[in-house]
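Dear colleagues,

As part of the handover before I leave the project, I'm documenting each prediction I ran so the next person doesn't have to rerun anything. This entry is a single chain, and its sequence is reproduced below.
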Amino acid sequence: MKLMTLNTHSLQEPHYADKLELFVETIRREQPDVIALQEVNQTALAPSASDELLTGLFPCRENSLPIREDNHAAHAARLLRHAGLECSWTYMPVKTGYGIYDEGLAFLCTGWEITASDSFYISGITDYQNWKTRRAAGIRIHGCDDWFYTVHTGWWQDTEESFKDQWKRLNNALEQKRQNHTVWLSGDFNSPAELRGEGCDLILSDGWYDTRQLAAQKDESGVTVRGRIDGWREEHHPFPDGMRLDYIWCSRPAPVKSSRVIFNGSYEPEVSDHYGVIIETG
């Protein structure tokens, strides 16, 4: 099985339409089974999506908002269908982004049917208008006993919504599922792997496995962000030449054939301010 994660930046990304096409073309070639996405946007005041655009949608029961006509995940799924790939997908809005977007989490599954979904807050703040509100979203797919989750966390240093507190809620919420299922946890964790004693080390200490470390083959650096991006523009940026902020974690030491950074300009074109990660298991 191939798993992928990407913080898409979606509608905020310059030359968005071109990058969406590049993303879909790469998915068509790579054919990952489960794609976990973050910063998946739709314009909050856009018209509701057509029935055709909603093809393949598995509704997340926690979502009370309509899917809009410019929803990033909906259009990615539409283009994948046009490219000949069956695509099941789901979308969970989390908060208002940049004052105009419903910003959320999504899954695309190529060749697999989504059969269950889950979502819960990992932040203490639950106000949809507050940019610090955070959730996790999860799915199961037909014929597979595993759970797959996507998340976009806050920062270690945030005194109001710290990574440590969000991680505690997330880890506790997944504790029972970890006892009975393999859980894959993907996303943008805003925790540089290069920093000791912070987010990455905390996740490892709670018994999760970094699939990059498990992989029999992996790329050289693992860097998923270069330069200064939103959330990492401080004068004393710790790693201006690159950080690994995006991960795929597993609840057990599963066999991982390979782990590669994708959409970094060397291995597929850049389509976001983050690069993605793709792994192959088995």
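Residues 16-30 form the longest helix (15 residues). The first strand starts at residue 2 and ends at 7.

All the best with the project,
I.
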